[in-house]
Automatic annotation (TrEMBL):
Enzyme Commission identifier(s): 6.1.1.2
Keywords (A to Z) from UniProt: Aminoacyl-tRNA synthetase, ATP-binding, Cytoplasm, Ligase, Nucleotide-binding, Protein biosynthesis
Keyword Amino-acid biosynthesis (UniProt): no
Subunit and partners: Homodimer.
Source organism superkingdom: Bacteria
Chain location of the short sequence motif 'HIGH' region per the record: 10-18
Source organism of this protein record: Biformimicrobium ophioploci
Protein name: Tryptophan--tRNA ligase
Family label: Belongs to the class-I aminoacyl-tRNA synthetase family.
Task performed by this protein: Catalyzes the attachment of tryptophan to tRNA(Trp).
Motif 'KMSKS' region: where in chain: 200-204
Residues noted as binding L-tryptophan in the record, renumbered to the chain: D142
Enzyme class, first EC level, given as a word: ligase
Sites where the protein binds ATP: T9, T10, T11, G17, N18, G154, K155, D156, L193, K200, M201, S202, K203, S204
Length: 333
């Protein structure tokens, strides 16, 4: 059996990029009986980027409701909140003591912060917390806690999965073979979805289209996608267009071929966006209703998470016990 695991950081409202890049493929994978699926809300990770307690809490609720509304079968998979598993922060420490500082120096998120500071003429470490610096160790603990061998992620997360592999290798080398070496699974057909401004759709750029916007707002957001100044009738380049890229992420291959032709024939931007709205709205409308119902019923969400935590801890508790023993931490007898 393959053990598949992935998480989403609870720092905002789930957007089309999270859906296409992570949630949709993960729910598909969970239907395959050859897989055991572990999906979680990364709320400890959220604290690295977001110090607004209300936002972290609200986002946790929204992301949980999103997975459930989209039909994740929580009997066939393990769906939990990271902070409900106390073995994860404990494993983080065991791994921290096996992680080379030099490895963390190379992590993209940390390096980007340092580079931005340098460019602004600041102290390179200005605003850099130990949370940001050792973020890949926490992520390694998420993965290794459940000995996942497959980790479906977007391209931006590949480096972190590779670091988890390095840390696992070092631990195994030192204390014996405890961990499977995880691999990132990146679907090449699923591109990094672009946001309203054409950059990667990302909470931190504020350019997202939330997945479950009310219909009118969804239409407004789609109308805000940046386009060039070509008039109706002028041929448009599908391969550089965000409208086309989002279309492709939701359409069948036939629909994509038709839209490609329409672009070359000079479809008006207004018309292309109207069709895009109808396509996306058609696919999310039913789940959006379930989402609204779930948000109004926090007890249902919490119950699901408690059920997931119980299943997860049935694995993490005995495994951590073994790891403690491996490093020499156990009762004196
Ligand atoms: P996060 O919360 O930034 O993103 C969640 C997932 O969505 C993918 N994604 C995208 N895919 C396509 N197009 C986009 N525009 C787009 N934006 C985001 C991300 O690649 C990711 O797969 N550190 C992780 C969360 C995490 C995790 C883990 C993941 C914590 N522990 C263990 C896997 C395993 C993060 O911040 O993802």
């Amino acid at each position: 059996k393959q053990r598949v695991l992935t998480g989403i950081t609870t720092t905002g409202t789930p957007h089309l990029g999270n859906y296409v890049g992570a949630i949709r493929p993960a729910i598909e994978a969970s239907k395959d009986s050859d897989n055991e699926s572990f999906y979680f809300l990364a709320d400890f990770h959220a604290l690295i980027k977001c110090q607004d307690p209300a936002l972290v809490h609200q986002s946790t609720r929204e992301i949980a409701a999103t997975w459930l509304a989209l039909g994740l079968d929580t009997d066939k998979s393990v769906f939990y909140r990271q902070s409900d598993i106390p073995e994860i922060p404990e494993l983080t420490w065991l791994l921290t003591c096996m992680t080379a500082k030099g490895l963390m120096n190379r992590a993209h998120a940390y390096k980007a912060a340092v580079d931005a500071n340098r460019e602004a003429g600041e102290d390179p470490d200005y605003g850099v917390t130990m949370g940001l610096y050792s973020y890949p160790v926490l992520m390694a603990a998420d993965i290794l806690m459940f000995n996942a061998n497959r980790v479906p992620v977007g391209k931006d997360q590949i480096q972190h999965v590779e670091m988890a592999r390095d840390v696992a290798q070092r631990f195994n080398h030192h204390y014996g073979e405890h961990f499977e070496l995880p691999e990132a699974v990146v679907d090449d057909n699923v591109a990094v979805l672009q946001g309203l401004d054409g950059r990667k759709m990302s909470k931190s750029y504020g350019n997202t289209i939330p997945l479950f916007l009310p219909e009118k707002k969804l239409k407004k957001h789609i109308n805000k996608i940046k386009t060039n100044l070509l008039e109706p009738g002028e041929p448009k380049d599908p391969d550089t267009s965000t409208v086309f890229q989002v279309w492709q992420a939701f359409a069948t291959p036939e629909q994509t071929a038709e839209m490609r032709q329409a672009f070359l024939d000079g479809i008006a931007w207004g018309e292309a966006k109207k069709q895009l709205f109808e396509l996306v709205n058609g696919q999310v409308a039913e789940a959006r209703e379930r989402y609204e119902t779930l948000l109004a019923s926090p007890a249902t969400i919490e119950e699901e998470l408690q059920k997931g935590a119980e299943k997860a801890r049935a694995i993490s508790r005995p495994f951590l016990e073994k790891l403690r023993e491996a490093v020499g931490i156990y009762k004196i007898s």
